[in-house]
């Protein structure tokens, strides 16, 4: 292990001692209880098994065999979740063959950020994570389960399910993905059509044709955004059956992997003092997830989500931990939006197995961690396939299948990970440098102030952005309006940058990986609505963003800056932000939410 990673791990262990200790004590008390069907009153048990076939009732009550709770995020709005439609029946069938029963404990909401981008519904997106966690908790609160299977893939769904699972951390738990859709048109072509549409060079019909060629079937979107970053991190944490992440929904191995998840969970449940998910997700496992994120230049959303996930397990991390860890973790992949390849090409070139092997072999991940697979984390450096109707795993090839997509640690794309912390007199923010050309790591330009993405888009349409500038898009944080992603700003800013102007964005909102090659200081904390200094910036202020050294400052005299008042959100804007498309139902979350760096958590 690299000494810096050991030091960061120990730092996290020390600051987490009180909360992690209390969490583990709660788990131990839950694990030591009599199983649900033997502990509960007869009326309670009768309700729980009323709809089951007689044979399953016998298994639970008389034979005391494992009963699995399934939490599913199935809906057919999300292409990634459509394959889950028939999973519960298949899971029940497999459970029966391995001496267990399975019940759908509950369903959780799953929204598609692709549908809600730039729409009012996007302001519910971040909060849907904690809603999903609560939904999972409601399902599992029936408390009659010996283990859990979690069905979910996309942006807020996996973090929400994992937070929910960690609040039932005494249960052995496995996550079941369903895989990416097949490759459509390449992402570069898609982006160019978007830019042409923004300039009026193609019409809406041409844009829809392009988008439909990219998003065209069942499975996750194939770019390396939050959904597919989720899958990479779940492999790194050992919470999948090894190699499950990027197998197509209708590949022959997918059904075999799902079957294996059910049988492996039953095996794990039956072990004496079975390792639960709460015990499994410890400080080392959180470090491994962070390392995988940095090594792949994954979604910046996980700088929020994994802080919340760690907190759910009693572990305290912040952006300084990510920043420091990046110094010891090389960037090993080049996947869109960092490069041009999609996740199917990434999988073909070696995929998660290749990355994890390189990280483990080069001291960038902890090898001594528990996983749902009996062989430990090195099981995740192997590739699954079906041969003669049997699921087998083979070693990932020694060399990359394509060095433009994935590389060995001895020849990385960059010596440090793809994410960086920015600090200065505005606050703390993060930037995804893996997608930004080095000549754009330093931007100094005057501020243009926007109180929402609509104002910036209007300025673009009116031709007011043809200059060097740094767009300050504020009142986009979790307290303001739920911290929507601002993807629609990428095409116009890309057009301005392509004309030779030096541009960047500073915002308390999110952009995930979609900022592309535009330098984007995002998740600014404290946010404007919490009195953050981003609300002090005035039109024309010179701002210097230096990703090379990790600084972001407004270049005004310190005494002037100190005396400046903070702008506040207008009552009209508050009203607009808080109503319509169900947003009023989430007002309590906006009031109670913690900062982005604290995980944008609504439940503490």
TrEMBL record:
Keywords: 4Fe-4S, Carbohydrate metabolism, Gluconate utilization, Iron, Iron-sulfur, Lyase, Metal-binding
Catalyzed reaction equations: 6-phospho-D-gluconate = 2-dehydro-3-deoxy-6-phospho-D-gluconate + H2O
Lineage top rank: taxon: Bacteria
EC number(s) given by UniProt: 4.2.1.12
Ranges of residues in domain Dihydroxy-acid/6-phosphogluconate dehydratase C-terminal: 405-600
GO CC, any one term: cytosol
GO molecular-function term, one example from the UniProt record: phosphogluconate dehydratase activity
Record text on cofactor binding: Binds 1 [4Fe-4S] cluster.
Binding, [4Fe-4S] cluster: 154, 221
Gene3D superfamilies in alphabetical order: IlvD/EDD C-terminal domain-like (3.50.30.80)
InterPro entries: 6-phosphgluc_deHydtase, Dihydro-acid_dehy_C, DiOHA_6PGluconate_deHydtase_CS, ILV_EDD_C, ILV_EDD_N, IlvD/EDD_N
Pathways involved: Carbohydrate metabolism; Entner-Doudoroff pathway
GO biological process: D-gluconate metabolic process; Entner-Doudoroff pathway through 6-phosphogluconate
PROSITE patterns: ILVD_EDD_1, ILVD_EDD_2
Record carries keyword Repeat: no
Cofactor: [4Fe-4S] cluster
Domain (Dihydroxy-acid/6-phosphogluconate dehydratase N-terminal): residue spans on this chain: 66-373
Family affiliation: Belongs to the IlvD/Edd family.
Function: Catalyzes the dehydration of 6-phospho-D-gluconate to 2-dehydro-3-deoxy-6-phospho-D-gluconate.
PANTHER family: D-XYLONATE DEHYDRATASE, PHOSPHOGLUCONATE DEHYDRATASE
NCBIfam families: edd
The protein's name: Phosphogluconate dehydratase
């Amino acid at each position: 292990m690299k000494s810096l990673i050991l030091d960061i791990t120990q730092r996290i262990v020390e600051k987490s001692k009180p909360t992690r200790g209390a969490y583990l004590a709660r788990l131990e008390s839950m694990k030591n209880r009599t199983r649900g069907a033997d502990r509960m009153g007869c009326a309670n048990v009768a309700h729980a098994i009323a709809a089951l076939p007689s044979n399953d009732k016998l298994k639970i009550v008389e034979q005391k065999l494992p009963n699995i709770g399934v939490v599913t995020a199935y809906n057919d709005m999300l292409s990634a979740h459509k394959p889950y439609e028939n999973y519960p029946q298949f899971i029940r069938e497999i459970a029966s063959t391995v001496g267990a029963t399975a019940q759908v404990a509950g369903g959780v909401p799953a929204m598609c950020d692709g549908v809600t981008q730039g729409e009012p519904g996007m302001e519910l997106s971040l909060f849907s994570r904690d809603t999903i966690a609560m939904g999972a908790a409601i399902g599992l609160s029936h408390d009659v389960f010996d283990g859990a299977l979690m069905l979910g893939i996309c942006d807020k769904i996996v973090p929400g399910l994992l937070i929910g699972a960690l609040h039932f951390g005494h249960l052995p738990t496995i996550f079941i993905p369903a895989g990416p859709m097949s490759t459509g048109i390449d992402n570069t072509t898609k982006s160019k059509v978007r830019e042409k549409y923004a300039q009026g060079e193609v019409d809406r019909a041409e844009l829809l044709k392009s988008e439909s060629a990219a998003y065209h079937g069942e499975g996750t979107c194939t770019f390396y955004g939050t959904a597919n970053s989720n899958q990479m991190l779940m492999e790194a944490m050992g919470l999948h059956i090894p190699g499950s992440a990027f197998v197509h929904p209708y590949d022959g191995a997918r059904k075999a992997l799902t079957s294996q998840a059910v049988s492996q969970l039953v095996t794990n449940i039956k072990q004496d003092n079975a390792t639960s998910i709460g015990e499994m997700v410890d400080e080392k496992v959180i470090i491994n997830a962070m390392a995988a994120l940095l090594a792949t230049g994954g979604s910046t959303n996980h700088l929020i989500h994994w802080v919340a996930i760690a907190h759910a397990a009693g572990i305290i991390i912040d952006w300084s931990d990510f920043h420091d860890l990046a110094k010891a973790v090389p960037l090993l992949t080049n996947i869109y939006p960092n490069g041009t390849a999609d996740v199917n090409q990434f999988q073909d070139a070696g995929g998660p197995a290749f990355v994890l092997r390189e990280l483990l072999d080069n001291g960038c991940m902890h090898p001594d961690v528990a996983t749902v697979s009996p062989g430990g984390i090195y099981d995740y450096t192997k590739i699954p396939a079906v041969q003669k109707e049997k699921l087998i795993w083979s070693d990932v090839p020694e060399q990359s299948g394509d060095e433009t997509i994935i590389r060995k640690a001895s020849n990385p794309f960059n010596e440090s990970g793809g994410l960086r912390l920015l600090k200065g007199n505005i606050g703390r923010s993060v930037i995804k440098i893996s997608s930004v050309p080095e000549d754009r790591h330093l931007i100094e330009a005057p501020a243009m102030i926007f109180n929402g993405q609509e104002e910036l888009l209007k300025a673009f349409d009116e031709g007011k952005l043809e200059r060097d500038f740094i767009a300050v898009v504020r009142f986009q944080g979790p307290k303001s309006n739920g911290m929507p992603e601002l993807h629609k700003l990428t095409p116009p800013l890309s057009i301005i940058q392509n004309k030779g102007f030096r541009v960047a964005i500073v915002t308390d909102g999110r952009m995930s990986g979609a900022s592309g090659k535009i330098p984007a200081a995002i998740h600014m904390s404290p946010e404007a609505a919490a009195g953050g200094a981003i609300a002090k910036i005035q039109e024309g202020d010179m701002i210097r963003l230096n990703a090379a050294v990790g600084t972001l400052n407004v270049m005004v005299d310190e005494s002037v800056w100190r005396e400046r008042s903070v702008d506040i959100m207008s009552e009209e804007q508050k009203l607009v932000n808080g109503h319509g498309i169900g947003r009023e139902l989430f007002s309590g979350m906006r009031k109670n939410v913690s900062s982005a760096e604290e995980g944008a958590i609504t439940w503490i």
